[in-house]
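Per reviewer request, we include the raw input and output of the structure prediction for the construct analysed in the revised manuscript.
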Amino acid sequence: MPRGITAEEVAGVIQTATPGVSNVHDLHVWTIRPGFVALSAHVVLDDQALSQTMPSMHAIKDALRTRFAIEHTTIQFECSQCNDGALICTPTAAPATLTAHDHSHRDGHTHDHAHDAHDAHDAYLHPASLTPIHA
């Protein structure tokens, strides 16, 4: 760690830089040369589309630059359902609160069904039905 910086302080700045950050882990901060500090971290966000994460990325990088003069950052976003070391998420049975609906398939056939059958039939991933798989 560079002088005057602690991992706890850096994690705290990341967690408060933008809404929806639930955890920071695998945090590494080091000096490449005097005055040039680098950081890498895994940041767990509330579940959202990748395209929606750019404001969070900018807010975190701006906060790190302002507070610690950290210019070189590598941040890996993870979703809260996969934050415990999972390599991938796979579908499980969908929650009972989801309702049935009509669904069209690539081959043109359609039918109504509940989500539990939908997950098994189409292997469609509903965010609420993801389970982490560990190495």
